[in-house]
Write a structure and sequence with these properties.
Layout lengths: L1 H27 L5 H16 L8 H30 L3 H19 L2 H22 L6 H21 L5 H17 L10 H25 L9 H26 L3
């Protein structure tokens, strides 16, 4: 028990340091990956917290992390789209979004959501230690293992649904994969699972990008030159995603 709590505290502190470094990069506009790396850190934090729900301080920290994810998602989507447009010969449309991003980075860095996250995150290790002293962490390993098993079961059930929702599957796959990375010592996934999960996430990510961009093109005229390509790519991505999902189901859940 004590060793598990020690590992959790160490992971929290490491994530805190990583997020602070990403914040500094975002403030100074040192590189184009600062926001992405910040979101990766927040995602890892949320994956670590999800199996701990019910413990003191978890709800507040999870909510703070969720708010940072909420405000940064459209900005990250704009980053990805701008990069695509630059690569595919649409410099005017790309530059228009790049200018907008330059205004949004400082707003995120100085915004209340990130400030609140750092405040709650800084206090969380003390909550964990206090809960440990008060005997509130009894059965922690079993609690985490039970939550991880449930996430895996929910994914399996979703894959078996003939009318599965690709949006939901994408989120479930990300949840299972990141939880496995957060708790490698407790996760008991089949040997091929991580490889299949990564492939499925990538395929569904390509599909999701096209789906999202096509929706935006209905309102943003400068995206219209890309619509035909996105429609073709989306259909190919659907086929590839279905093939990868089929392999994930057969290799990891049986059929």
């Amino acid at each position: 028990m004590s060793a598990l709590v020690d590992r959790l505290v160490a992971q929290i502190l490491s994530l805190d340091v990583n997020l602070l470094a990403c914040h500094a990069r975002l403030v100074a506009v040192t590189d184009a990956e600062a926001l992405h790396d910040l979101r990766v850190g927040v995602r890892r934090l949320r994956s670590l917290l999800r199996p701990l729900r019910g413990l003191p301080g978890v709800e507040q920290l999870e909510q703070a992390a969720s708010e940072v994810g909420r405000v940064t998602t459209p900005i990250r989507d704009r980053e990805v789209l701008a990069a695509y447009l630059h690569r595919h010969g649409q410099p005017i449309a790309a530059d228009r979004r790049t200018v907008q991003l330059a205004r949004e980075y400082p707003a995120v860095a100085q915004g209340p959501e990130l400030s609140h996250l750092f405040m709650v995150l800084d206090a969380f290790p003390r909550f964990l230690r206090a809960a440990q002293r008060q005997g509130l962490l009894g059965g922690l390993r079993k609690r985490i293992e039970k939550r991880l098993d449930k996430q895996w079961k929910v994914l399996g059930e979703a894959l078996q649904d003939p009318a599965h929702d690709r949006h939901r599957l994408r989120l479930l796959i990300k949840r299972v994969r990141y939880a496995a990375e957060a708790y490698p010592q407790l996760e008991r996934l089949p040997a091929r699972a991580i490889k299949r999960l990564k492939a499925a996430q990538a395929a569904l990510g390509d599909w999701h990008d096209c789906w999202q961009w096509l929706a935006q093109a209905e309102q943003q005229a400068d995206l219209l030159p890309c619509v035909a390509t996105w429609r073709r790519t989306m259909l190919k991505s659907e086929t590839r995603a279905d093939q990868v999902l089929d392999k994930l189901q057969s290799d990891c859940f049986g059929r």
